[in-house]
């Protein structure tokens, strides 16, 4: 085991992924009897930090903690600095959960069926906001357009908080995001959650139906994952996988992930790799069909 393991988070400190990574690091160090630290390398929609790890040493000393957003970014980036399906090895996926679809309370929409009906009544006029082109929320909405045979209009912002403000104010109609993104506006009565994006009901959101009830087959889940550079010894990957799976089931991690409706996901490295490949294939297909490209 390396004397020091550095977990790179490709986002700014304080982001949801960063908070989870720091909890993983705090528990992983004692379990592996080594020092584990977190280093933030934000920029490039997560691709800068990912590139550092993909091209880093293959001895387990430099790992990456990120989310499915890295895969959606890779699928929409014209000249990605690395291949997410071959240059990195998924070690473990501590948690998975649905995104939430919420609307402004200035709309009359209260159910998935009403959302679809409103979109069909006025194609390309029902608006949704995201933190930018090519984000997981953007692609999730495009996938919904196909599954429900509707056309909602994308309004990209320079940050999710700006989109939340405009949705709460009724300037745009809806958002697709993790629950904590707009939880305060929901509590204040300015936004209304109407559905989740997982194909099946979620115990975290017992009162929210899946959007798949009106858009058969529609499914988008947000997972977090720990990666190593391709070529890292399989025995080391397996050892860390075992420890992270146990951390995912810890009381501290379960409580932390509950805010976003995520639950522990205990998978093998091989199962994690399949999820990455499947996610990439889905988002690449959507990006190609919709001509969504990040330069």
List key phrases describing it:
single chain, 295 residues, alpha/beta, D-Maltodextrin-Binding Protein, domain 2, 2 domains, 5-stranded mixed sheet, 10 helices
Question: What secondary-structure arrangement, pairings included, does this model have?
Answer:
Layout lengths: L3 E6 L6 H17 L2 E6 L6 H8 L7 E6 H9 L11 E11 L1 E5 L7 H10 L5 E4 L5 H13 L4 E4 L3 H9 L5 E4 L1 H9 L3 E6 L24 E9 L4 H15 L2 H8 L4 E2 L4 H22 L5
Helix pairs in contact: 1-8, 3-10
What does this structure look like?
This protein has helices at residues 16-32, 47-54, 68-76, 112-121, 136-148, 160-168, 179-187, 234-248, 251-258, 269-290, and strands spanning 4-9, 35-40, 62-67, 88-98, 100-104, 127-130, 153-156, 174-177, 191-196, 221-229, 263-264. By secondary structure, it is α/β, with parallel strands linked by helices. It has 2 domains: 4-97 and 222-290, D-Maltodextrin-Binding Protein, domain 2 (3-Layer(aba) Sandwich); 100-213, D-Maltodextrin-Binding Protein, domain 2. Helix 1 (16-32) crosses helix 8 and helix 3 (68-76) runs parallel beside helix 10 (269-290). The model has no long low-confidence stretch (mean pLDDT 95). This is Tripartite tricarboxylate transporter substrate binding protein. Belongs to the UPF0065 (bug) family.
């Amino acid at each position: 085991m390396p004397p020091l393991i550095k977990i790179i988070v490709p986002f700014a400190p304080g982001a949801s992924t960063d908070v989870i990574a720091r909890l993983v690091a705090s528990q992983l160090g004692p379990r592996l009897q080594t020092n584990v630290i977190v280093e933030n390398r934000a920029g490039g929609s997560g691709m800068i930090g990912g590139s550092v790890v993909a091209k880093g040493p293959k001895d387990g000393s430099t790992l990456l903690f990120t989310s499915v957003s890295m895969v959606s970014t890779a699928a929409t980036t014209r000249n990605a600095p690395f291949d997410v399906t071959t240059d990195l090895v998924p070690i473990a996926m501590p948690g998975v959960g649905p995104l939430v679809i919420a609307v402004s309370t200035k709309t009359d929409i209260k159910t998935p069926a009403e959302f679809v009906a409103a979109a069909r009544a006025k194609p390309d006029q029902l608006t949704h906001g995201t933190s930018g082109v090519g984000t997981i929320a953007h692609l999730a909405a495009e996938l919904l357009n196909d599954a429900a045979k509707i056309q909602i209009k994308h309004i990209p912002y320079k940050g999710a908080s700006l989109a939340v403000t405009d949705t709460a104010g009724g300037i745009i109609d809806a958002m697709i995001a993790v629950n904590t993104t707009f939880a305060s506006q929901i509590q204040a009565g300015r936004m209304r959650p109407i559905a989740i994006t997982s194909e099946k009901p979620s115990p975290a959101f017992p009162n929210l139906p899946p959007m798949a009830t009106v858009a058969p087959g529609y499914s988008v889940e947000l997972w977090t994952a720990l990666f190593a550079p391709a070529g890292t010894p399989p025995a080391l990957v397996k050892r860390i996988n075992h420890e992270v799976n146990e951390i995912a089931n810890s009381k501290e991690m379960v409580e932390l992930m509950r805010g976003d409706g995520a639950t522990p996901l205990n998978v093998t490295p091989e199962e994690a790799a399949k999820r990455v490949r499947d996610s990439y294939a889905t988002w690449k297909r959507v990006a190609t069909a919709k001509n969504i490209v990040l330069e």
